[in-house]
Amino acid sequence: MKRRWKSLFLAATWVMLAIGTSIFIILTQPLAPTSAKEPNVVIETLKPAPTPEASNDKKPDSTVAEPAPSPEAIARRQKLIEADKLYLAGDYTAAQKIYREVKKPFADISNAPQIKPAIADVNQLSPGGKVYWRETQAGIASKLSTRIFVPLELLVKQNPEFIPGHITYAEQLQNSGEKKKALEILERAATLYPNQADLIKAKVTTLASNKKWMEASLAARQFAILNPNDSQAAEFNQLAEENLKRYKSHIRSEIRGNTIANIITGALGYALTGSLVGPFSALNSTVLLLQGEKSVGESVAKQAKKQLPLVKDPQLVAYVNSIGQKLAKVGGRDEFKYEFFVIPEESLNAFALPGGKIFVHAGAIGKTNSEAELAGLLGHELSHVLLSHGFQLVTQGNLIGNLTQYLPFGGIVGQLFALTYSRDMERQADTLGTRLIVSNGYAADGVYNLMLTLKEEQKDSPPSWLSSHPGSKERVAYLEKLITDNNYNRYAYEGVAQHLEMQAKAKQILKEEKERKHREEKKTRDR
Predict the structure, then answer these.
(1) Across 358-367, 403-412, 468-477, 511-520, least confident range
(2) Which residues, 6 or more positions from 390, have their beta carbon under 8 angstroms from its beta carbon?
């Protein structure tokens, strides 16, 4: 009984001390990032990859025999290499002719919309479009929703080139409380007409009004990056900064709001276990998150580089880095230092840490078929960074991560909490990743073709990279629709020749790594 009262007294003392310390930290916390320690939940969320490798070690001969490419596959590669040369030389017409010969059309390619030039003048509308617009204006004046939404829906469907139609439709939906549909209208229109400043500004404004500040910041920044000569480019850069500040302020406020709850959780852990690890972990993780995602990423990457073997081959690392840096350049977040690392693991896998640290398995280089496909993988992971997905999950999972460490299988519970949002986030990353590669002149189906490769890998069970993602069949379908609906160019640079060289390097590195592991295992057995 005395021991119990002593524990409760010490726990209460800890609470008082921690509250005082936390208040001091919150009041004095600098906005500039400083060095930090790695939070437990990050590693749990971002370390699914080693599982398949562990099973591969039990069957070291399962991947030794690799079938030689068929004559048809070799001929296809040669044609793509020829098309790539023409594309790089600026002969796009001849290059696209070959790309079209080699690449199968999508099943519903006949339904691909014809994108008309954007218009803003109502006098340029078709007679039917003018009627819909007049009816809309009359409905707005009389405040009759039936006279507003029916003609607007018909207008944007039949005359999608009329930019004010999309903007007005979204405004009216937003005013009626249909925020999600308003954003869908603007997103669809912005993908059709990404260079229309008024449309993108409406999208940024609507995102911000719905507290989607990160997405608003990215939309504004990407417009400024991709349209540097636009007269409003500086204004979009300013919008990007304003919304980024709002996002960061919101995240800091959210973290601070969890501080006291984390301290109480830590004290409860001390009372139950007698260990101070929990309370200090709760306080440390709060301090870490307050320092921002750049510090979190650098801290975790530092730990990851100590724990993970990294490929040192300068050509292979430079190849991956060159692709990644090109994609990051149009990403819209230049506050991060982007770094790309290669790990000597066999699976088609990659993972991203907050702040721009991306780790790619050598197997991803060995199993992808072109530079565009590898760019698709990097673009997807980079999108998680740009959209702050990892940092959002860690922030939202901070309290439950601290709480579940005292429960049986707590780490798993914390991980499942983090994955609650992942399907939505994966779709966002697929979409933004596709836009990133398109912006860099790669074939628009880089992410799509990656999904086809993953689908082949899937067989009886999904690869580790798909463990928390939408099914590959679902992803192939919505990526095909994304490319078709937005008229993205599938017949652009594939990058096959250099990729084949890097592919051979990656496979050799994996072979040597496997032999090294077997020698070490043999030495261990012989002891």
Answers:
(1) 403-412
(2) 42, 45, 46, 293, 297, 352, 353, 354, 384
